[in-house]
Specification:
alpha/beta, Rossmann fold, globular
């Protein structure tokens, strides 16, 4: 999927996890569709590259709640938010550690909740209607070996999506999630390159392929757009049918 277009002229969208993978693809596509984009991430060089494309960079460590609060305080009024930042630290369920569990939850769930709260509060105060998209995972819907903390964090994100939908709908703010399967960012392409790991997962996906970042960015932009004006509270699998089995 590569040929699609939405009109986000005059709209400002905040994107977390903007410096790589799905987040970067979302930024690039939003800019191409006329949006003003504030890109949040840790990688200074990657933020500079996005700035060259027209995004406003904001360097922040989402593990640090004080840094998150400071970054959010400086954000201009937005019409949309894409919570795309996420980490995966894999451990067997019998070996889960407090450090890893807390780190994954802090980035994948806590930071997403804090950023959304700040963005939505400004939208509500200014009576601006808009859309928030949380980038979750198929891992919220199934059990995956060695993914206890990751699955828990994405399950939390889905639950958060439903609560935000209920609380903010009266203010004209729609909140949805997308739940991708394995998405071939450069890091994921390396991690899933071994046939012993890759082939069983591909066999479990009815479409027989992994997602590319654009395959996830397109539904994100759809949910941000007025084409999805009556869609809220949805957790949308973008998984080639994986969770249908």
């Amino acid at each position: 999927m590569s040929d699609y277009s939405f009109d986000f002229s005059g709209q400002h969208v905040v994107v977390t996890g903007a410096t790589s993978g799905i987040g970067r693809e979302v930024c690039v596509r939003l800019l191409a569709c006329g949006a003003a984009v504030t890109a949040l991430g840790r990688d200074a060089a990657a933020l500079e590259a996005l700035q060259a494309l027209g995004a406003q960079p904001c360097q922040v460590d989402l593990l640090n709640p004080s840094a998150v609060a400071a970054a959010c305080a400086g954000l201009p009024l937005a019409h949309g938010l894409v919570n795309c930042a996420g980490i995966a630290c894999l451990e067997p369920a019998t070996e889960v550690t407090a450090e890893v569990f807390d780190q994954v939850m802090a980035v994948n769930a806590r930071a997403a909740a804090l950023v959304a709260a700040s963005v939505a509060a400004k939208m509500i105060a200014a009576q601006v209607h808009g859309s928030i998209v949380n980038v979750s995972s198929q891992a919220s819907m199934v059990g995956l070996f060695d993914h206890l903390a990751y699955c828990a964090s994405k399950g939390a994100m889905d639950a958060m999506t439903r609560v935000q939908c209920v609380e903010w709908g009266a203010h004209g703010i729609r909140v949805n999630a997308v739940n991708p399967t394995v998405t071939l960012t450069p890091m994921a392409a390396h991690a899933w390159g071994e046939p012993a790991k890759r082939d069983p997962m591909l066999a479990a996906i009815p479409l027989g392929k992994f997602a590319m970042p654009v395959d996830v960015a397109a539904p994100v932009l759809f949910l941000l757009s007025q084409a999805a004006a009556m869609i809220s509270g949805v957790c949308l699998p973008v998984d080639g049918g994986y969770t249908s089995r």
